[in-house]
Amino acid sequence: MTEAPLIAILDDEPEIRRLLSAALEDAGFRTQTYGRATEFEAALRRIMPDACLIDLGLPDRDGLALVHRLATESGAAIIIISGRAQVQDRVTGLELGADDYIIKPFEPAEVVARIRARLRRPAQQQGRNAQSLRFAGWSADFDRYTLTSPDGIEVPLSHAEAEVLRMFTDNPRRLITRAQMLETLGGTAGDSFDRAMDVRISRLRTKLGEDPKNPHLIKTIYGAGYIFLAEIEQTP
């Protein structure tokens, strides 16, 4: 029997932690809750959550710095839950690596739905026997959230970067429009989504050693979208 996904909740308000934990456990998830960033970071040495709900207004740490660290070091989905409702706050959170941004006050059912949407795609992908694949000398492991270069150097992927790469490798040599990205990756249409996608693709290009002026794997079709130019070879 497969163990239920583990959701880590970091918020300094006990009532919000209780509300989120109850809603998620009623929906079949496991939860661990934390009121301070130091507690949460210590727990990450022992647990591997499938998703993290992160409040930005923490008493002992800048929430955005924590989001950025998680995005670079963890394969967990990252969802910000914050009272900061300005567009620039949402854009910054997404640019730093968050997968989603929910504004307080929120409906617990919406949070549950957003987490399900973020975790549904990896579950669907398992049946395709393509969790590991090769392209242009690179190896991608979507179970471990890693890339391995032709020289054998391993590069970590954030959850958001892995989702973008997965979208490309599922659709090689085909134009992927912004509308298709929105449908595949989820989110809300608008400038914040577009900027977040641009940042994720830029980071992915950097990890793939792409020349930003002359990329040979991820080609921009201005005004239309992107094309992933590599041939895909699935590995056992």
Q: In a nutshell, what does this entry contain?
A:
With 236 residues, the chain is an alpha/beta fold.
Q: Your description of this structure?
A:
Residues 130-230 form the OmpR/PhoB-type domain. The chain is built from 8 helices and 13 strands. The radius of gyration is 18 Å and the shape is globular. The strands form 3 sheets. Strands 2-1-3-4-5 form a 5-stranded parallel sheet, with helices on both faces. It has a 5-stranded antiparallel sheet with strand order 9-8-7-6-13, with no helix packed on it. A 3-stranded antiparallel sheet has the order 10-12-11. The two termini are 23 Å apart. Helix 4 runs parallel beside helix 8 and helix 6 packs across helix 8. By secondary structure, it is α/β, with parallel strands linked by helices.
Give a quick set of tags describing it.
five-stranded antiparallel beta sheet; globular; 236 residues; alpha/beta; single chain; 8 helices; 40% helix; five-stranded parallel beta sheet
SSE arrangement:
Elements: E1 6-10, H1 14-26, E2 30-34, H2 37-43, E3 51-54, H3 63-73, E4 77-82, H4 87-95, E5 100-103, H5 108-125, E6 132-135, E7 138-141, E8 146-148, E9 154-156, H6 159-170, E10 175-177, H7 178-185, H8 191-207, E11 218-221, E12 225-228, E13 233-234
Parallel strand pairs: 1-2, 1-3, 3-4, 4-5
Antiparallel strand pairs: 6-7, 6-13, 7-8, 8-9, 10-12, 11-12
Helix pairs in contact: 1-5, 4-8, 6-8
